[in-house]
Design brief:
The chain has one domain. Helices cover 72% and strands 0% of the residues. It has 5 helices and no strands. The longest helix has 20 residues. 1% of the residues are buried.
Length: 67
């Protein structure tokens, strides 16, 4: 996986193209399955809601500190 990450970083490729080219991964998953597994929509869960909540708390605290 390290080599795949380096190919993405150094060669400017993306994971959607690099991972399906791997023989081991390709023998276990289709390109569409790999795409689905690395799609952030599938694993970020409540991150955006938590970030918004924490940003709201930070803004509230900043307003308190300005008083």
């Amino acid at each position: 996986m390290y080599e795949k990450a380096m190919a993405v970083e150094i060669e400017g490729n993306d994971y959607y193209h690099v991972l399906p080219e791997d023989a081991v991964l390709a023998s276990m998953f289709t390109a569409d399955e790999i795409k689905a597994m690395i799609d952030p929509a599938g694993y970020t869960g409540l991150c955006s809601l938590i970030a918004e909540e924490m940003a709201g708390k930070a803004n509230g605290k900043a307003a308190e500190l300005k008083k």
